[in-house]
Write a structure and sequence with these properties.
2 copies of one chain form a homodimer. Chain A is built from 16 helices and 16 strands. In chain A, a hairpin with a 5-residue loop joins strand 3 and strand 4. The first copy, chain A, folds into 2 domains: 309 residues, BirA Bifunctional Protein, domain 2 (2-Layer Sandwich); 92 residues, Anticodon-binding domain (Rossmann fold). Chain A is 38% helix and 21% strand.
Chain lengths: 426, 426
């Protein structure tokens, strides 16, 4: 039996890497004062198909089906519609602005390729109920600090900032009819990726060409971004940002600032992206709740690839993995007849919060030590003929003391205080 | 727009409760030396339909569908088949015994009712590659310590221990043909829940009655459990366990010990359950890998309900929620002209690991303090006319000092050392 294509198995070494990304995401979001929320894995397909919602590409790639109750449902392709639905239903319960984040699986039905899977993890951060430049800047600063948290510096990534509003102003000034706007935006989003002829064909009904779009991008007016850049400069983060009107974003619902985080290596992959979506909450509720909103998403697949290629980022990961490996104490049992004593020590230390292991089967003492060291255990406790005294051995330094078993937790804690490394705080 | 029936929205207050369960689950599993793994949310339906796999009830309740590539797929109803598939593929890479845990969403298509949802979270813990009583006991001890971690004591829950092997011996001794065994086990599993006549009708083809099953249960021989009980006694945990042959477990693949954790209040809900499934890995691989295995699952729905009904458990939860509420520092900005200075302090403190908030909009000073206190912030930093000096105020004690802004991180850290509460370690 095999897993499905585009889906991942997380063996322990993979799950540990995922947990690293998870913990960093959470740490930075909480440092910015964001509160976690989450929605269901499955939603009504309607949530994504509604007018003004998502975009053509995301609908094509929707992992949707009809369930046994004949409901049209979809595995969530992104979090924003769920968030907008939740906020429209209960916004009265929360003080504004709301700063919310979520971390969880999202799904797209698309061909598997490097950096693109059918199930991936995504961090989403959103500020709701504030339409100021200060919240635009807070959002971009958060994206920057997420990258810095993994060990990436200014030479490694850039946040490209653009404005969906500037795009709309340009398109409307050219007299494009409303129904053609989505296809113009989609063409603009694909400008550097799709074939020129195909794009021109797509733009023709709107009376536009790729050359027109390039002219608009080249002539973009950076003055409109001055307040944002001043705010970022006060944070010392303006050096991570470039104004670049070629950024459009594929999703239909953006209304103002849009941005993407790119790696600066040759590949120029997008690591995160988002923007302002001021109309979406009214569109997904009954219309009675309307509030400005801005958010972004960061997926784990491209990010994890970039971490593993980047020396400083992968060194930080490896250091974390090493610190999280192995248990605090491996109990070494000399004589099987003392298993009851060993089980008592095992339970007493676990009750004090230490991670502890004891072999299930009769095992030679040398083999027990070998297993303890290979698994990264920090201490061995040898239970033998000196009982109720036991040997406490620090495996890295090979220092050894003899203590009454009842004082083991105390000795382990003292060792930690004195800088002998240990993961658990008891 | 509404969410689907049987699926949950996690607003921040719900997500915090989920995170509490999540952190406790992880802490106890790691204390027992378990390593995290995970599989995909979606699997081939075949994985659950294979002979010797899962059981009739789980197949009826499978949340399965045909995807756009005409594959028969299912949202995972439980983790064991995924684990067995993963282990069969790569067991050579891992030292035995393997102690693995996972935490994530599972899905069942069934009518929504109290304690039963279509999407729920489940902790799974498994020991692979060891068939000893010592690993049986380790598994039960882990289940007990999970309950104790949430504040439940011996009067609150019981682990009922039984043996699928004893059931098989009984059924085979009665000359039941192999194809009828699953329906006998299912009837036994429903003995106290379904209607007597319906059960007798189900048992008739096997030449058995409810009375026969009850006689077997009453005559169960506890001697076979003596080694297990001795191991648990050495851990001081035997008081949490009862031998009870009425426990059968609905899943088809169990082969030896089976157990369930029940709350002892009137409702007697099952909070967790599992058992030994020694043949499953061979059945799901190509047969070349065969190893003993034991595991259990604990869902979040019944557990969370029980926590909220139980005074000590809900007090522990509330204490955790209170400690995890609010940021380390709320910056109070007296004069909007000093926003750049405030942004510099904001970034400097976040860079040092503190969680910090600054209002996006011009806000009266009194209102800023009120918001800080209501949100549970631990300190306020007032930026005003004394700049580069700032006021550092500890909100619970209302003590106040004036410090240069460049020494804020140091002062906050000193406060934490001296027992002034703060969540972040910088």
């Amino acid at each position: 039996m095999k897993g499905l294509p585009g889906f991942r198995d997380f063996y322990p070494e993979d799950a540990a890497r995922r947990q690293y990304v998870w913990e960093k995401w959470r740490a930075v979001a909480e440092r910015y004062g964001f509160s976690e929320y989450d929605g269901p894995t499955l939603e009504s397909t309607d949530l994504y198909a509604k007018k003004n919602e998502s975009g053509a590409e995301i609908l094509q790639q929707l992992y949707n089906f009809q369930d046994k109750g004949e409901r049209n449902v979809a595995l969530r392709p992104e979090m924003t519609p769920t968030l907008a639905r939740m906020v429209a239903a209960r916004e009265k319960n929360y003080r504004k602005p709301m700063k919310w984040f979520s971390m969880g699986p999202c799904f797209r039905y698309e061909r598997q390729q490097k950096g693109r899977l059918r199930e991936f993890l995504q961090l989403n951060c959103d500020i709701l109920g504030d339409g100021s430049t200060a919240s635009d800047s807070e959002m971009i600063a958060l994206a920057i600090d997420l990258m810095r948290e993994f060990g990436f510096a200014g030479e490694d990534f850039v946040v490209r900032v653009s404005s969906r509003k500037a795009w709309m102003d340009f398109i409307l000034a050219r007299g494009v009819s409303t129904d053609l706007i989505p296809s113009v935006l989609q063409a603009a989003d694909k400008l550097e990726r799709d074939h020129e002829d195909a794009l021109n064909a797509r733009l023709a009904p709107a009376g536009l060409t790729c050359a027109d779009l390039r002219e608009f991008i080249a002539g973009g007016s950076p003055e409109a971004f001055a307040p944002l850049l001043a705010d970022l400069k006060a944070r010392g983060l303006d050096g991570f940002v470039e104004i670049d009107l070629s950024i459009v974003r594929g999703l239909a619902y953006y209304t103002g600032l849009v941005f993407e985080v790119f790696d600066k290596s040759r590949s120029m992959r997008a690591l995160a992206g988002g923007g302002r979506y001021d109309g979406l909450i009214a569109a997904l509720g009954d219309g009675s709740v309307d509030m400005p909103a801005i958010g972004f998403g960061m997926g784990d697949v491209v990010l994890s690839n970039y971490i593993s290629e980047h020396p400083a980022a992968s060194a930080a990961l490896n250091q974390w993995l090493e610190a999280h490996r192995g248990c605090d104490v491996a109990i070494v049992l000399v004589d099987e007849a003392q298993r009851p004593e060993a089980l008592g020590v095992l339970q007493a230390l676990r009750d004090q919060g230490f991670s502890v292991e004891l072999p299930f089967q009769v095992t030679k003492v040398g083999k027990q030590f070998q297993t303890a060291e290979q698994s990264g255990a920090r201490h061995a406790v040898v239970i033998g003929s000196e009982w109720p005294l036991v040997k406490l051995k620090h495996l890295a330094t090979r220092t050894e003391t003899q203590v009454p078993h009842s004082e083991l937790a105390q000795s382990l804690r003292k060792g930690q205080e004195h800088g002998v490394p240990g993961r658990s705080a008891a």
